[in-house]
Amino acid sequence: MAGGERIVARSADLAERGRGVRFTVARGGRTLPAFAVRVDGVVHAYVNACAHQGVELDWEEGAFFDDGGRHLVCASHGALYDPASGRCVGGPCRGASLARVRVVERDGAIAVVGGE
């Protein structure tokens, strides 16, 4: 991995629309929970905070998708998010978005790019 990148998972840890991987990121001088999921072969990562009230999305560690594997879902409020864009497509925060975390995937690893 290049400088300024921190490995947070192995590529094999993320199955297509399967369980996500949790990790932390630094934002605004704070350490925040974050997660990564794989959709259409691409890894997408977000701060783990619902756009509605800021609670973590997963009801069980790594369980971010709805039963059909189509949307990310907030376990507390039922908000539905497009997993590729992070945009809320249903629920109390429709139109808002999850905060994206920049990641790269190469050499069998997933890494967060940059920090603050």
Describe what this molecule looks like in 3D.
By secondary structure, this protein is mainly β. The chain has one domain (5-113): Rieske [2Fe-2S] iron-sulphur domain (Rieske Iron-sulfur Protein). 0% of the residues lie in helices and 39% in strands. The chain contains no helices and nine strands. The strands form three sheets. A three-stranded antiparallel β-sheet has the order 1-9-8, with no helix packed on it. A three-stranded antiparallel β-sheet has the order 2-3-4, with no helix packed on it. A three-stranded antiparallel β-sheet has the order 5-6-7, with no helix packed on it. A hairpin with a 2-residue loop joins strand 3 and strand 4. The protein is globular.
- Broad shape: globular
CATH class: Mainly Beta
| Arithmetic mean pLDDT | 94
Gyration radius, to the nearest Å? 13 Å
The count of DSSP E runs of length 2 or more, i.e. the number of strands, is: 9
**Approximately how much beta-strand content do the residues carry?**
35-45%
The number of helical segments is 0
* Largest sheet geometry: 3 strands, antiparallel
State the helicity in percent bands: under 10%
What would you call the quaternary organization?
A: single chain
CATH superfamily: Rieske [2Fe-2S] iron-sulphur domain
- The CATH topology is given as Rieske Iron-sulfur Protein
Adjacency order of strands in the biggest sheet: 1-9-8
Question: Which class of secondary structure composition applies to the elements?
Answer: mainly beta
| Separation, N- and C-terminal Cα atoms | 18 Å
- Architecture (CATH level 2) name: 3-layer Sandwich
- Which stretches of 5+ consecutive residues score pLDDT under 50? none
